[in-house]
Amino acid sequence: MSDTRRRARELRDHALAAGEPTAWFERLYAHAGEDPASIPWADLAPNPHLVEWCEREGARGPGRALKVGCGLGDDAEYLSSLGFDVTAFDVAPTAIAHCRARFPSSRVDYRVADLLAPEDLPGEGFDLVVEAYTLQVLPPEVHAEALARVAAWVRPGGRLLLVCRGREPGEACPSLHWPLTRPELQALTSAGLREERFEDYLDDEVPPVRRFRVTFAREPG
Fold first, then answer.
1. Are 116 and 142 in contact (CB under 8 A)?
2. What are the Cα distances from residue 187, in Å, to 23, 181, 206?
3. Which fold has domain 3-217?
4. What is the Cα gyration radius of the chain?
5. What is the rounded distance in angstroms from the CA atom of residue 60 to the CA atom of residue 126?
6. Fewer CB within 10 Å, N side or C side of the chain?
7. Reported pTM
8. By C-alpha distance, which of 12, 37, 10, 4 is closest to 136?
9. SS3 (DSSP) at 109
10. Cβ-proximal residues to 114 (8 Å cutoff; 6+ apart), any chain
11. Which pairing describes strands 126-132 and 109-112: parallel, antiparallel, or unpaired?
């Protein structure tokens, strides 16, 4: 395990022991300072699985899009470049400060909010909701709750793109992540969404990582 991931795991474990599953994100970003290489998932580029999906699906604005767990803002800015009116949130104030500093002329509405704290979150519906890599760093005990909240943002006629590490039920989890299982994703259909496409594949990382990329939709009202 790299020093970067080891440090992230230590912060995560301390937060979990204190019963604060999302508190470690701010500590990680604050500890990183101006060094994005200290953030395990900070590639400073749009997520390639999102880009490939948007190109394949012809995803374009106008419309309202929400980026869940926006990190340093690259996915949110990419969605904005496609013509969407984008709202993006992250639990870490330092991450949001970096977004605003990196993209000073951005049209994205960046907000500090905790996915597990409903009072923090946007209340409106969106035409496109994108969640990539956030749920997989939350413990399985909160996956169903988090998925239900993500589903609630999809307006009638809207879509959800979910990208995450995948595993089989009962399969051991890697050191820093809790990959999702397909049965866990049933929380989204229970919340009124319809699964349009389920993709299960190995990505191009070395070594390859198993990914789920799943498209859901809410029927028009």
1. yes
2. 24, 11, 31
3. Rossmann fold (3.40.50)
4. 16
5. 14
6. C
7. 0.93
8. 12
9. strand
10. 22, 91, 120, 121
11. unpaired
What's the CA gap between 147 and 164, in Å, rounded?
12
DSSP state of 173: P
Find out whether 69 and 115 touch, Cβ atoms under 8 Å: yes
pLDDT in tens, 151-165: 999 999 999 999 999
* Token duo for residue 122: 């946007």
- Total count of residues recorded for the chain: 221
145: buried, middle or exposed (CB in 10 Å: 19+, 13-18, 0-12)? middle
Tell me how far apart the alpha carbons of residues 28 and 33 are, in angstroms, rounded to a whole number.
9
Residue 1 clears pLDDT 60, i.e. is over it: no
- At 53, list the tokens: 């999906």
In angstroms, the CA 198 to CA 200 distance is 7
Helix (H/G/I), strand (E/B), else coil: 15: helix
